[in-house]
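Incident log, support desk, overnight shift.

02:14 A customer reports that sequence design results differ from what the structure should imply. Their input is reproduced verbatim below. On-call engineer (initials T.W.) acknowledged and began investigating.
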């Protein structure tokens, strides 16, 4: 069995980490924003950093979940949960009132983490894929 740097588990783990970093950044930033100039961390309040985190989270998450769906298990639920979660991140960031922002973003991040965990579970439980690793399977 060959080990690949971009294996299914690594992309899901990276997706979970990216969404958690994004959520922690968005939730914690309002709490520490007054201390940022004292700590010399003005870059953390940069709006471009937030866009980069959102984009990175989407690219890694979608890639991992689509690979799992397309190449292995063919269960759509992880992609639906990811879409709802990412919608929550965007809504929390751009649409929700400031007082609701941490809650909406946390709920979105939780859905994304749930989607990745479900994707991992579905990939591990794929009996056809376990018999013939590395091939594309149509269930």
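02:41 Re-run completed on a clean worker. Output:
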């Amino acid at each position: 069995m060959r080990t690949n740097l971009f294996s299914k588990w690594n992309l899901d783990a990276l997706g979970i980490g990216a969404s958690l970093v994004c959520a922690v950044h968005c939730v914690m930033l309002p709490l520490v924003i007054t201390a940022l100039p004292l700590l010399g961390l003005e870059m953390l309040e940069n709006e471009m950093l937030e866009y980069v985190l959102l984009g990175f989270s989407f690219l890694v998450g979608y890639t991992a979940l689509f690979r799992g769906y397309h190449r292995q298990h063919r269960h759509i639920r992880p992609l639906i949960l990811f879409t709802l979660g990412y919608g929550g991140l965007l809504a929390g960031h751009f649409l929700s009132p400031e007082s609701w922002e941490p809650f909406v973003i946390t709920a979105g991040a939780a859905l994304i983490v749930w989607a990745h965990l479900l994707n991992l579970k579905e990939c591990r439980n794929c009996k056809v894929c376990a018999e013939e690793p590395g091939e594309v399977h149509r269930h």
